[in-house]
Amino acid sequence: MIRLSIKRKIIGIAVILIVLMAVTAFLSMGLVMQVGGRLDDLTQSYVPAYGALARANVRSLERAMLLRRMVIEKIEAAPSGESLRGRYDASGAAFEKEMHTAQALIDGLIEKGSQFGDATALVRLKTRLDDLIEDSRGHLGDEIAHLLPLIDTGDRPAIAEALDRVDAFRDELDRQLDAVRGEMMDLVRTDAAATLRKQHAVTLTAIVLTALAATLGLVFSVLVSGGMTRPVRRLLEGTRAVEAGHLEGNLAVTSQDEIGLLTVAFNKMVEQLRMKERIRETFGRYVDPRIVEGLISGPALASAGERRIMTVLFCDVKGFSGVSEEMTPQGLVKVMNRYFSTMSAPIRDHGGIIDKYIGDAIMAYWGPPFTADADQARLAALAALDMQARVAPFQAELPELVGLKSVPISFDIRIGIATGEMLVGSIGSDVMMSYTVMGDTVNVASRLEGANKLYGTHVLAAEATVTAAADAIETREIDRVILAGQSQAQVAYEIIGRAGALTPTQIELRTRYTAGLAAYRVRHWEEARAAFAAALESVPDDGPSSAMLKRIDGLAAAPPGDDWDGAWHIEQK
Length: 573
Known about the structure:
Blueprint: H1 6-76, H2 84-112, H3 119-153, H4 156-243, H5 258-283, H6 289-297, E1 306-317, H7 320-324, H8 329-349, E2 353-358, E3 361-366, H9 376-389, H10 391-402, E4 413-428, E5 433-438, H11 440-455, E6 459-462, H12 463-468, E7 473-482, E8 490-498, H13 504-521, H14 525-538, H15 543-557, E9 567-569
Parallel strand pairs: 4-6, 7-9
Antiparallel strand pairs: 1-3, 1-4, 2-3, 4-5, 6-8, 7-8
């Protein structure tokens, strides 16, 4: 595992690049210095040595010319007025000086060790130069020393003979000097070409070293940066997966730098999210998942209660309590679980919040922040209709649930719905809270659910609910009632179907029942009796019509007082 921090990794990359650059620079500098040493040898030794030899050759020719002028001047007795002897001696001294200069330069190259590997050629050249100087001082010097006195004597034959011998030795000297100078020129040319090749090699080497250093630096940078970016990419992919809701698995921790620590923290975060999701899933079985989400995600739902317009629904099983006493605990639990699953589905499908299960009853509500104000009553009414539609299929499942071919259970439900202002919020003790609804509207819904017993109906709703959901449902007015615990009368409606979905029989029933209800409220008992009887002819088992006929019999026998407003007191809850 890499144990360096990101800062140290970046510094390490920079240091390695600097080291590679420094090595490249030093190697290039060393090669350049070699080329510089060769150029220094060429400019300071080889070329000057060749120049000294060339000048010595010129001085030799100049001496020969001056010597002849001296002879001519003496023989012809025509003085030129110049000091030819002085010039001759000076030229001889200059010749000696150039020769010694060349000799010294070549000696220096031999002692230094030539950069070009031509030490043998230099030693051979030096040997020939030494011999040439020795010959110049020996035989040629002797002949010149013999000639000079003869010039003063004017003995032409003797002078001519001596001059021939001097010319012969000088020609030989010049030939040897030309050969030495030629060899020196060859060395200069060869070494200059070698220097040029070396310079090209140095340039190519510098390019190769620079490219190699850049490649190594790039490769190392890619390796190190890849080691840093791969975990970052994994973190990014993991973050996107978490954002999409995928909480499976952890990211591998491949380093112990800041990215590694971040990966560890990310894994811990995912683990916390998984735990949170498990909590949400677990408590979602006991409390509506939207409430769990709100309580976990933010404090809004856990704040103090507030008054809102909400719609509440109560659902109870008709006559099931007595039958359940005869069932085994296992069978009862199986039936109840299936019942609650069947009846809870429409509530959830229509955006309702199941508040609690009370025995075999269900309490649910609609409203902000879970349902829009304009939709809550409509959704509650549609949920009630769907719940009623599931009664028959559930009745058919009962034999299989209890393991009997026939079950003497007449299963049916009663539903009450009310819309109005109520208290909404987290309500409870210091050690246990419940997000629920409370208030008079909740009691109205509960009483309407109980009122179904009196009228033989399945779904009763308050006027506010029917008004808010009028465009989605079909209803009929059942009665004006004063519910238990209430002092004000209100109209109870039966929800009988979705908007535009009534059968002709249902429409006829509603029409006749409405006519009977109108006659009932103005105390036209016989007219009301006839209308309710006609309604029973349309639907023989219509509970509200039967209930109203029984009530009319009692009112006809004992008419109400003058203050009677047509409202019926329901004392039972």
